[in-house]
Specification:
Blueprint (H helix, E strand, L loop, with lengths): L3 E5 L3 H6 L5 E5 L4 H23 L6
Parallel strand pairs: 1-2
Length: 60
């Protein structure tokens, strides 16, 4: 199973545990608030991508 991991700064312990097939989306910041903000934006973008892939002809 492929893992998509959202990490911050240096990736922490999780970065070293990911395999080649996994995806890490890292926010290179020291500020926790910035990392959380960008994680929320990333998750929203991923959800939009999934919605548009599954339901391509639906109007907003």
């Amino acid at each position: 199973m492929t893992i998509v991991a959202l990490t911050g700064y240096d990736g922490g312990e999780l970065a070293g545990l990911l395999g080649q097939q996994d995806v890490e989306i890292r926010i290179p910041s020291h500020r926790s608030a910035r990392i959380q903000e960008m994680h929320m934006l990333t998750v929203n973008c991923l959800c939009d991508l999934i919605d548009n892939t599954l339901f391509p002809h639906q109007d907003d």
